[in-house]
Structure formats: structure tokens, C-alpha cells
Amino acid sequence: MKKHISVLFAALLISAELPCITAGAVQAPETSAKAAVLISADTGEIVCGENYSEKLPMASTTKIMTALLCIESGGLDQQFTVDSQAIRVEGSSMGLREGDTVTKYALCCGMLLPSGNDAANAAAVRIAGSIPAFAELMNSRARELGMSRTWFVTPSGLDGEGHGSCAYDMAILAAAALRNDTFREICSSETIKLEFGDPPYTRWLRNTNKLLSMYTGTYGVKTGFTDDAGRCLVSACERGGKRLICVTLNDRNDWNDHMALYDYGFGAVDTFEPELPADMAVPVAGGASGSVKLTPGGEPLVLTTAGASQEDMDYTVISAPYVYAPVSAGDALAELSISFRGREIRRIPLYSAEDVEYVQRPARKKSLFERIKSILSHKAEGKRG
């Protein structure tokens, strides 16, 4: 059995392009979309789709990238006053006004639920100083994710020259964003209670994604609409350990199309349970043992259309260079990055499988040279005194 295990003492980023694989002998349902795709949220494999590599305007589904970058920028609970110019934007809004005090977390909620263009612009200016500078960050991250047919111009998704993506790129973006717990928590909420304003006061935001209540298992992601783009929808759904992501662009019947694609997709794919490494450990400083064994927090299932095998899997232990004793069994010490054909698909926590006691090391005896040096130093101090 082939097992690739490595240890990484920093953040891991894998952006290798995964081949597109279409699976399923049963005919996939037709849609009203100009472009559509259904993929495995784990591997990025294509279950079915049509025109999924064609670049099209994607409207407010753009805010998936904006919200992800906002969350990753940190300081989500720090309060600040919104930029008065940034919030002067047409279209959907979270209700920001000049002088309002907000947090980045509130802006993420404002752009992912009511699809606030004001929230997206305010976040962009707060993070990068200007909308063009933020667009550069968006495009840089798109390249990292392998979104080869995507170009961002606006953080909100309002029309801009060259602004567009393809259905497959947006599905890959959604898969990456949903691995962020904060992003997933926000986009899967039908309503969220927040405080913002001048002065801040309590208000409720409602999600425009009706699929959350229409189809069991849906946990995201984002709606969109402009006259040029038509109705756009990126969604995610889980059933029986299977996770799928669906994207339709320019689709007048998006709710029904997504439900039909999920009905088809869950029957067309299988899960694979990879055999995780059994010999994982990290070094221990100051312990009775020089290392501590690790045990994974769960046995993950991988949704695949191509009949995955252990040969497709790679594993990377992500930890500090060493941990300090004492260590108790069950302590969270590291993460295991699981990759499928060169693409990271999941991280799971790694816990200590045993106790490691702290051991007081005896003081090191001074060498003869060190003792002579110390004696001479004391004599010198006595003469000066």
C-alpha cells in the first residue's frame, strides 16, 4: 500500500489543477442554465455539467471570494466606521449609512445573506484601501485556487469590464470557501442577528438563498442577479456523508434545477474511506519520551466519481516543530492534511494518543575550562571590590 506522509511546520497550500471527470451512466437532468456544473465538494471532480468552462458574468456570487478574503484578513470583531464613498453603490444593500460603526464579521453577513453591495465595497476598502487594490487580491487568490477562467473587477459582482468566471471555477471557489468554518456558518444561516449603525443597534438579516429551506441538506452558498448575468446560484448540499456543490449561471429556473441536479448527483457518486497513516507522531521537548503518537479525530469519507484508491491519497502532518511536555492523551497537537491527486481536500485534527510526563533534566556539569574561567572571574571581581 502506498502512503505518502510528510511533516510541514507551516501553513499548506496546494493549488494543483485537478482533471475534470464526468461520471454517471444515468442521463443527467437538463437545466435552463446557460452554464451548469455539479462537482464533488471533496475532490472537485465533475459529476455532470454543461458549458461549465465558458466565461460568463456571475453577478453577486462574486461575494464568495470577497467574504472569504474578508474572513481570512482577521480582526473580524474589531469595530470601525465604514468608508462613506465605498457604501454609495447601487443595487442590493445591508442598509449601511455614512458614519455607521460595523465589524468585518457584520460585513461578511451583510454580503452573504442580503447580498449587500455596500457591505462588499466597505470590506474591500477596509482591507486593501481601494476597490482596485482589493480586486488584485481577489485575482491573486483566484490564481492560487486554479481558477483559470476568472477575472474579478468588482468586489460586489456588479458589472465591470472583463469581470466574469465559469461555472467550474465558481464551484472550486465555493469548495475552498466552505472549508472555512466561519464562512460556512454564515452562508448556511437563514437569518442572522447583528448590531451595527450610528450608534449600533440590533437588526436581523435574512438570506436570499431560498434553497436553504427548500431542499434538505443545503448549507450554502450564494445567489446573484444582474440584467447581464441573469439569475446565478452557487449552492452546496450534504446527504449521507456525500457533499456536492452545484453552480448555475444565467438560469431562470435555478431553484428547481439545483434540486434536480442534487437528486441525480447523490445517486451517481460513491464515497471512499481512505486508510489514514498509523505511524504519525510529533517531537516532544522536556518529556520522558522524545515524541508523542498522534491519533486522528475521525475517519473522513471522500466523495468521488472516479473510483478512488489509496494510491490517490497523500497525507501531511501539520504541526509546530515540537510540543512541550507534559502532554495528556486527547490534547489537540496537529492537523492532518488529506490530498487527493495533488489537491488538498480536507484537514482533520490530530490528538495525542498517550500521556508524556515532564522530566526535570539534571543541570549540565561545567567543563574544566568553564570552572577555571569562573574562578578567575570571581577573583577579578574581588580585586575590583
Give the helix tally. 9
Specify the helix fraction band.
Answer: 25-40%
Measured distance between first and last alpha carbons: 73 Å
| SSE series | EEEHEEHHHHHEEHEEEHEEEEEEEEH
Helix-strand category: alpha+beta
Strand content: 25-35%
Fold-level CATH name of the largest domain: Beta-lactamase
- The CATH superfamily of the largest domain appears as DD-peptidase/beta-lactamase superfamily
CATH class of the largest domain: Alpha Beta
Strand arrangement within the widest β-sheet reads 1-15-17-18-13-12-16
Low-confidence stretches: 1-24
Please provide the count of β strands: 18
Radius of gyration: 26 Å
Number of separate structural domains: 2
Task: Give an account of the 3D structure.
With 385 residues, the chain is α+β, with helices and mostly antiparallel strands. It has two domains: 1-14 and 270-385, Peptidoglycan synthesis regulatory factor (PBP3), Domain 2 (Sandwich), CATH 2.60.410.10; 35-268, DD-peptidase/beta-lactamase superfamily (Beta-lactamase, 3-Layer(aba) Sandwich). 26% of the residues lie in helices and 27% in strands. The protein contains nine helices and 18 strands. It has helices spanning 63-72, 104-112, 117-128, 131-144, 167-178, 181-187, 211-214, 254-268, 368-384; strands at residues 5-8, 35-40, 46-50, 80-81, 101-102, 191-197, 200-206, 218-226, 230-239, 242-249, 270-272, 281-285, 291-296, 302-304, 313-318, 323-324, 332-340, 343-352. The protein has a seven-stranded mixed sheet, with no helix packed on it. Strands 3-2-10-9-8 form a five-stranded antiparallel sheet, with helices on both faces. A two-stranded antiparallel sheet has the order 4-5. A hairpin with a 2-residue loop joins strand 17 and strand 18 (343-352). Helix 1 (63-72) runs antiparallel to helix 2 (104-112), helix 1 (63-72) crosses helix 3 (117-128) and helix 2 runs antiparallel to helix 3. The longest helix is centred in the C-terminal third of the chain and has 17 residues, at 368-384. The protein is globular and about 90 Å long. The chain starts with a strand and ends with a helix.
